[in-house]
Write a structure and sequence with these properties.
Blueprint: H1 6-16, E1 32-40, E2 45-51, E3 75-81, E4 84-93, H2 94-102, H3 106-135, E5 139-142, H4 159-170, E6 178-182, H5 184-191, H6 194-197, H7 199-202, H8 206-210, E7 219-223, E8 238-241, E9 251-255, E10 262-263, E11 268-271, E12 283-285, E13 290-291, E14 302-305, E15 319-323, E16 328-332, E17 336-343, E18 352-359, E19 366-374, E20 377-390, E21 396-400
Parallel strand pairs: 1-17, 5-21, 6-7
Antiparallel strand pairs: 2-3, 4-20, 5-12, 6-16, 8-9, 8-15, 9-14, 10-13, 11-12, 11-15, 16-21, 17-20, 18-19, 19-20
Helix pairs in contact: 1-3
């Protein structure tokens, strides 16, 4: 690399951030970030304490000379693993390097290449968070197949966000740090809302002048370029509920499932009573992949386990559907986590001749950048090890689209 080191290349990396195309990132800044300088390998575990809901109130009895024994407090732990350790490698031969140096573009091009590497890794983490949050949502609401937040004749365009907020509040979600991460089509609908563009109505002109999404009812609005359509399992047609499932039930028994088939984690279950005329009620979200015949007595019966309890009871023999949808997600920061580390390296070092930790100014993530030298060739590697986890389904809500 001649006299060029990663230390003085860092400045070019930040300059390149203004010119290299990047997809919008919404999930990463909205979840709990767990990043340290400790190196880690694939399979390393991240743990968190989990406290159970208090089981009972205790009557206070006065006149005692000793402290009464308190009921046991439920404290358990949950964990997840760092499942991805990936890198983008940037090789450059001596002839290419010399051409760039003679043209005065060496540092600039390398800065751009490193930004492209960060772009690739960031999109992979954002996509992992999207899948984890989608598959672990507690409930869903809205209208399948429509892009939400559009202004109708009798609507303000933000009703679905307020409905999601209501469901989260009823589930006990703290409202101190909640985000709505939407796809760019839904974001365009928000930006075309004439009321929100009116500074006298919105309280400021940032949406109109800068396109910056403003909070709605205390919920931060963000967009993600990694939200894709969820395609339901092969049982996506219809079936029938076999029994009444009450509010709070975390499973539903289905019989007469059309053509057998499968359902998938993240499928939204819509029962007839959950979509009464003129209402927008909450649907359940399936927690795991299943096939017909799982958990029932008949060949086509299936017990679908849900991430959270039903908000609305089902009715025996009513129709049930599994929906395709493009989701938008409202959740509390502590409902999901991204843990990120530098990839493991030998204690005595490897063949790298230089290494530096650089923060991506676009996503805020921190990457390890290492340089390796070979025969008339050098290579820069941008790398990260990470894992994602949705901790609390009750604190995640899907708005259908």
């Amino acid at each position: 690399m001649g006299d060029l080191t990663l230390t003085n290349l860092a400045e070019d990396i930040y300059v390149a951030a203004d010119t290299v195309g990047r997809e919008v990132v919404g999930f990463i800044p909205s979840v709990t970030m767990n990043a340290t300088s400790v190196q880690a390998s694939v399979g390393d575990t991240v743990k968190a304490a989990v406290t159970a809901e208090a089981t009972a109130l205790v009557d206070i009895a006065g006149g005692l000379m000793s402290v009464p024994e308190a009921p046991a407090t439920g404290i358990s732990s949950d964990s997840f693993q760092l499942t991805n350790s990936k890198a983008v490698q940037i090789p450059l031969g001596a002839e290419q390097e010399l051409q760039l140096q003679n043209a005065g573009q060496y540092a600039t091009v390398y800065g751009d290449l490193i930004q492209q590497a960060m772009r690739k890794l960031t999109n992979a983490m954002e996509a992992d968070l999207f899948t984890e949050i989608k598959n672990n949502a507690g409930a869903a609401s809205g209208v399948q197949g429509t892009s939400p937040f559009a202004v109708g004749s009798n609507e303000s365009g933000v009703e679905e966000i307020l409905k999601a907020r209501e469901i989260l509040v009823d589930a006990g979600t703290p409202m101190d740090d909640v985000s709505c991460v939407m796809n760019t089509t839904a974001g365009a609908n928000i930006r075309s809302n004439l009321k929100l563009l009116d500074a006298s109505f919105a309280g400021n002109a940032t949406l109109r002048e800068q396109g910056t999404l403003i909070p709605i009812a205390g919920i931060s609005l963000r967009e993600s370029g990694q939200i894709s359509k969820h395609v339901a399992g092969t049982a996506a047609a219809t079936g029938l509920i076999k029994a009444v499932d009450n509010v709070g039930s975390t499973s539903i028994l289905i019989d007469s499932l059309d053509n057998g088939g499968t359902i998938k984690a993240g499928d939204v279950v819509e029962a007839g009573s959950q979509e009464a005329a003129g209402t927008k009620k909450a649907f359940g979200v399936v927690s795991a992949d299943l096939t017909a015949g799982s958990g029932g007595s008949g060949a086509n019966e299936l017990t679908a386990t849900l991430n959270s309890g039903l908000v609305t009871a089902t009715v025996n023999d009513e129709e049930v559907r599994f929906l395709d949808y493009t989701g938008n997600f409202v959740f509390h920061r502590r409902a999901a986590e991204l843990a990120m580390r530098a990839p493991a390296a030998p204690a005595g070092g490897d063949a790298a001749t230089d290494a530096i930790v650089v923060q991506d100014p676009h996503s805020g993530l921190v990457f390890e950048v290492r340089v390796y030298k070979g025969y008339r060739k050098s290579m820069i590697e941008v790398a990260a090890t990470w894992g994602v986890k949705a901790w609390k389904s009750d604190f995640i809500h899907t708005i259908l689209g």
